[in-house]
């Protein structure tokens, strides 16, 4: 008994220490209950110990029974505590797992209506009739009620404030199921692929049943957030909502999703063409969608009433800018009275009249007048004077107000200071994403203090977010005003003509030393600004033609070299997403090009780029209608041929990224390999349909009949250097050489491999062929005799996927599924050095640079790597893309494996 008492005291002390170790309140409560039970039993035991020895002897049997009861009681208390804590751990673990799974949705954290200070509701007493009409639609749960509502309105008519008010009213009635407020200023709020995942994320917390079903969907496919909206709608909305409807949880009332400012979301039509049919066909019954946007074909073509659709399936339309002017102005009057309480009724009436039907005009006046303690009255007088202009109509009123704000903010500044202020404002409205004052200061080369002071002087149109310190515009109409060609009529047509045709006129001139000197000055000091102008004019591809005209003139080696490098940079801009986004010309392109080009002097300090070795950079990317299986560049690099999973071959202009003509059609199964003839006039293709075809590279017309001879799928094709022969390998372990003109085999097939032939290539002199195989070996064959030259090259531990000769014919490079690249002596078959290791998955393609000093490799690990061909050391960091196929020299192409569900691929060009 004494020992048990001591043990109980020790356990009680241990529990007391555990209680203070940062456990949750629930765990502490369980510990306290257990400690209380220990304390109770301990007191009973001590009471028995206080009895005399004689008493304990007499009552020994009874005490023993009671102590056994205490022991059972104690064990039960321990078991209960243990069970409760284990349940707590399981709940917490499930919650953590749920959170981790939900994170896979990649939902936008800034899109919901209750995030951020800029989402404000209507002023009390305004927009009452409009809000009531929308809420009547919300509360209509009849069988023929429309499940969609689109409020369309011109910029500045107050759509977002109405949307915010609707969200708050829905929350009061517990009908707010989710919201997404698009914003062109915030990347995650302007990217269309975030909309459906964000809505699903909020619905999961609105409905437990929805959340449970969604978890199962995400467990099955954790990459669903990366897929197309049509797939997302089906898996993230329709399927989980079906489970909700089966519970009958929302009978009699319908939850609502609010999506605001669709026009501020890039490629929003991709979402609408997926979700609108689901609404119209009632695939999401019992869930309503409220949309707002400006007028625009990309939105209206999906949401305007379709007479072919039944009433219950239509999206209800409401045009905010068509509301009677007197009703809008009554609301504007209430708003102004609420915000400008010291202003007379007569002055309010003037401001109301000048606002027309634009709430943003009134809101901007309020910010402008109340944004200062000192000049408020003076600003009000200026606005009233402007407002009494009888010619201020439509956008002219808001434009003149913005002009007045800018003029007053820059009043008294010297010309250089005014130009700096304008640079800062243009930077704010031009950047692809909001940036801080510090970033602005680097971009325009001013101090942080100057950037901050300029923004503070424009608080009626710009503001600095306290959370991320980035500069935002209050309304999308201000960037529209600053950037609109129609509303900012400072176009210089003479300059546009010069930009387009200087190369043409240069070619017509007599080129002398003076002309060359002028051209050198232009290249070194002005050409970057010409490229900027062409970027803004959306004519970057034309730059390449102009530069080619200039290169036809004898300008000297130095100038011609600079023009070629500039052409490479322009090519990268034209193929990418730089057009119309001038800041990215200086931020994303210029810093990565050689500093030796004089025109880049002074621009590299915008970004501090640290690089080692050669720079590997993407020139551009564009989409194809089916998964890309293979590709090849023409000898002059002007055309890219891609073989697709659907059996088609497509060709592309590498300068512009535009498709050249119609697809080449003839194969019945996927195209596995394509190659250009040395003169670029023909393309050979191999396919899973076991045939080989030759095409006219310009017209896409087939040249002759298909080559038929292999018994199995063709894996790899190549032209000989003289274009007279074609070699191709197959799954039947053979490779065959055919005459490319008469479509006849030259000799018997080579049968030296014991498994599938995966890759073939001619030597530069056309006398030998190298082949790689699934049998993990590389072989060299004599074209004339058909005999193997030497023994197989052995060293790879998995199938060889790609082989190539160096231009001097002395070395062969091979890539393998063993994740390595190897270099071999082409004569002896001996390995030169150790394997190149760095890829984390199978190597899919390899090639030598023309000078033989570098090797490029692509891999299933989604990277392209460049290696020193002599040492095997990597040159620079890997370039992350998808499935890659090196082509030649310093340029390569890559094809994404575009997952089966997307049915879309992307061509990437790199240099």
Automatic annotation (TrEMBL):
Entries under PROSITE patterns matching the protein: WD_REPEATS_1, WD_REPEATS_2, WD_REPEATS_REGION
Domain of life of the native organism: Eukaryota
Keywords: Repeat, WD repeat
Keyword Repeat carried by entry: yes
InterPro entries found in the cross-reference section: NPHP3-like_N, P-loop_NTPase, WD-F-box_domain-protein, WD40/YVTN_repeat-like_dom_sf, WD40_PAC1, WD40_repeat_CS, WD40_repeat_dom_sf, WD40_rpt
Pfam family for this entry, one: WD40
Record-linked SMART domains: WD40 (SM00320)
The WD repeat ranges on this chain: 628-657, 664-705, 707-739, 750-791, 793-834, 836-877
Nephrocystin 3-like N-terminal domain: residues covered: 133-294
PANTHER family per the UniProt record, alphabetical: F-BOX DOMAIN-CONTAINING PROTEIN (PTHR14604:SF4), WD40 REPEAT PF20 (PTHR14604)
Protein name per its UniProtKB record: Nephrocystin 3-like N-terminal domain-containing protein
Organism per entry: Dendrothele bispora (strain CBS 962.96)
């Amino acid at each position: 008994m004494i020992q048990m008492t001591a043990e109980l005291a020790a356990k009680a002390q241990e529990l007391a220490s555990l209680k203070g170790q940062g456990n949750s309140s629930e765990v502490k409560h369980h510990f306290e209950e257990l400690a209380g039970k220990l304390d109770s039993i301990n007191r009973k035991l001590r009471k028995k110990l206080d009895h005399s020895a004689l008493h304990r002897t007499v009552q020994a049997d009874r005490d023993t029974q009671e102590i056994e009861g205490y022991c059972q009681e104690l064990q039960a208390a321990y078991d209960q505590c243990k069970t409760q804590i284990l349940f707590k751990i399981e709940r917490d673990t499930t919650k953590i797992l749920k959170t981790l799974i939900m994170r896979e949705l990649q939902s936008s954290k800034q899109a919901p209506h209750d995030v951020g200070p800029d989402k404000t509701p209507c002023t009390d007493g305004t927009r009452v009739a409009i809000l009531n009409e929308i809420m009547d639609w919300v509360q209509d749960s009849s069988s023929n009620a429309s499940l969609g509502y689109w409020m369309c309105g011109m910029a500045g008519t107050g759509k977002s404030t109405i949307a915010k008010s609707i969200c708050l009213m829905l929350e009061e009635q517990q009908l707010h199921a989710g919201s997404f407020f698009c914003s062109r200023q915030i990347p995650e709020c302007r990217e269309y692929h975030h909309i459906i995942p964000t809505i699903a994320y909020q619905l999961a917390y609105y409905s437990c049943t929805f959340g449970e079903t969604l978890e199962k969907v995400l467990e099955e496919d954790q990459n669903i957030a990366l897929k197309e909206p049509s797939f997302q709608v089906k898996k993230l909305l329709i399927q989980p909502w079906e489970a909700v409807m089966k519970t009958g949880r929302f009978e009699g009332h319908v939850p609502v999703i609010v999506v605001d400012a669709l026009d501020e979301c890039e490629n929003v039509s991709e979402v609408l063409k997926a979700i609108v049919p689901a609404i119209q066909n009632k695939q999401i019954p019992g869930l309503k969608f409220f949309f707002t946007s400006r007028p625009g074909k990309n939105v209206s073509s999906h949401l305007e009433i379709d007479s072919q659709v039944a009433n219950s399936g239509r999206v209800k339309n409401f045009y905010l800018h068509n509301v009677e002017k007197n009703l809008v102005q009554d609301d504007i009057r209430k708003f102004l009275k609420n915000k400008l309480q010291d202003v007379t009724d007569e002055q309010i009436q003037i401001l109301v009249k000048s606002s027309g039907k634009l709430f943003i005009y009134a809101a901007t006046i309020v910010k402008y007048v109340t944004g200062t303690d000192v000049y408020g009255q003076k600003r009000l007088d200026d606005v009233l004077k402007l407002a009494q202009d009888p010619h201020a109509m439509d956008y002219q009123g808001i434009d003149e107000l913005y002009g007045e704000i800018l003029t007053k903010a820059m009043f008294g500044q010297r010309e250089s200071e005014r130009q700096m202020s304008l640079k800062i404002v243009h930077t704010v409205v031009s950047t692809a994403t909001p940036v801080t004052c510090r970033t602005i200061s680097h971009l325009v080369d001013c101090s942080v203090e100057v950037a901050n002071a300029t923004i503070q002087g424009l608080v009626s149109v710009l503001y600095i977010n306290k959370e991320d310190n980035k500069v935002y515009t209050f309304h999308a109409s201000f960037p529209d005003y600053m950037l609109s060609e129609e509303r900012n009529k400072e176009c210089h047509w003479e300059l546009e003509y010069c930009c387009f045709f200087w190369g043409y006129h240069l070619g017509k001139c007599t080129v002398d030393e003076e002309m060359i000197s002028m051209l050198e000055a232009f290249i070194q000091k002005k050409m970057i600004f010409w490229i900027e102008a062409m970027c803004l004019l959306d004519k970057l591809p034309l730059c390449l033609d102009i530069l080619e005209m200039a290169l036809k003139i004898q300008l000297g080696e130095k100038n011609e070299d600079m023009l070629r490098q500039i052409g490479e940079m322009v090519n990268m801009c034209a193929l990418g997403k730089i057009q119309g986004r001038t800041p990215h010309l200086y931020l994303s392109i210029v810093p990565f090009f050689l500093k030796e080009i004089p025109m880049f002097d002074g621009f590299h300090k915008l970004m501090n780029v640290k690089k080692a070795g050669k720079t590997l950079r993407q020139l551009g990317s564009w989409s194809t209608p089916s998964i890309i299986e293979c590709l090849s560049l023409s000898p002059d690099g002007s055309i890219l041929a891609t073989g697709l999973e659907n059996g088609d071959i497509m060709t592309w202009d590498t300068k512009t990224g535009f498709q050249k003509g119609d697809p080449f059609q003839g194969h019945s199964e996927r195209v596995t390999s394509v190659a250009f003839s040395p003169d670029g006039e023909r393309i050979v293709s191999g396919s899973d349909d076991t045939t080989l075809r030759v095409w006219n590279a310009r017209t896409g017309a087939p040249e002759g009949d298909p080559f038929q001879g292999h018994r199995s799928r063709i894996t790899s094709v190549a032209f000989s250097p003289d274009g007279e022969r074609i070699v191709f390998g197959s799954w039947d372990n053979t490779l065959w050489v055919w005459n490319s003109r008469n479509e006849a085999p030259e000799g018997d097939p080579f049968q030296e491999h014991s498994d599938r032939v995966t890759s073939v290539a001619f030597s530069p002199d056309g006398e030998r062929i190298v082949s790689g195989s699934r049998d993990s070996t590389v072989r060299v064959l004599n074209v004339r005799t058909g005999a193997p030259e030497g023994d197989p090259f052995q060293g790879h531990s998995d199938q060889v996927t790609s082989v190539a000769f160096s231009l001097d014919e002395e070395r062969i490079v091979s890539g393998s599924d063993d994740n390595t690249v190897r270099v071999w002596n082409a004569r002896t078959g001996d390995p030169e050095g150790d394997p190149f290791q760095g890829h984390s998955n199978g190597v899919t393609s390899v090639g030598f640079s023309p000078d033989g000093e570098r090797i490029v490799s692509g891999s299933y690990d989604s990277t392209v790597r460049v290696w020193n061909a002599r040492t095997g050391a990597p040159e620079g960091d890997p370039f992350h893309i998808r499935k890659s196929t090196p082509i030649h020299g310093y340029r390569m192409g890559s094809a994404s494996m575009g997952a089966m569900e997307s049915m879309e691929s992307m061509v990437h060009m790199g240099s």
